[in-house]
Amino acid sequence: MTPLLEVAGLTAGYGPVQALFGVDLTVTEGEVVALMGRNGMGKTTTIGAVMRLLPAAGTLRFDGRDLLSLPPHRAARLGLGLVPEGRRCFAPLTVAENLTVAARPGPWDAARIGRLFPRLTERRRQPARTLSGGEQQMLAIARALMTNPRLLILDEATEGLAPVVRQEIWSAIRELKTEGLAILLVDKSLRELKALADRAVVLERGETVWAGPVQDLTDEMTDRWLGV
Ligand code: ATP
Fold first, then answer.
1. Structure confidence by residue, pLDDT tens digits, 99-142
2. CA–centroid distance, residue 205 to ligand 1 (Å)
3. How many angstroms does the Cα of residue 158 sit away from the middle of ligand 1?
4. Domain limits of the chain?
5. Cα(31)–Cα(58) distance, rounded to whole angstroms?
6. For residue 210, what are the β-bridge partners?
7. Does ipTM come in above 0.90?
8. What is the C-alpha to C-alpha distance for residues 164 and 151, in angstroms, rounded to an integer?
9. CATH no. of 1-79+182-228
10. Ligand 1 mean position to 37 CA, how many Å?
11. Does 61 have pLDDT greater than 90?
12. Which amino acids bring their CB within 6 angstroms of ligand 1?
């Protein structure tokens, strides 16, 4: 089967500073892939390159189409939905407005978002800046879903949240997986990633050093690549 997202030999950087030296990664339809690695190993940079927010080279295809030949806004429109690190909702806009500005045609609309995150419906008339951290994270996920993505990319979606809120986010992600949405995610919770992901891709110094089914990740491997 052709992968939905195909990344091979990807290089990217920040001006003169090269950060990625050869990232290989695939996500097929309906698959959940965890992008792992210690701090600074290139996870967020990989996501930025996939979203075409950074100059990059190598193979980068989405649904068979060459993303590197497209301008960034066109790339996202092919069906890449990003939940960026740090949430970045439009603070002065209400919850409902945040959702409306993101909307693109497809099965996801405000009603369906309300079933996934009932709290957002309760808060729909409030400006995003008045939401709690967990609610803002729900809104960031909701906004990405409103674009009706074929691949949802989550960068540290549970970072800095209380354990109970974190569980709400994980349960929403599980539900999206059950619905068959392809997901690429970065998170610090190895336990949750192992429970949820089908496959893992491990980065070390901007390069893929391992990829395979999560259950094949041994303690020795996680100590070596993810330990502090
Ligand atoms: P973290 O979990 O800390 O976010 P990460 O795996 O996502 O880690 P990246 O943020 O992708 O890692 O960083 C990869 C490399 O690129 C690091 O060496 C980092 O210092 C560098 N880097 C990241 N952002 C910038 C930037 N804006 N300008 C210059 N270098 C950067």
1. 999 999 999 999 999 999 999 999 999 999 999 999 999 999 99
2. 10
3. 19
4. 1-79+182-228
5. 23
6. 202
7. yes
8. 26
9. 3.40.50.300
10. 12
11. yes
12. 14, 17, 19, 37, 39-45
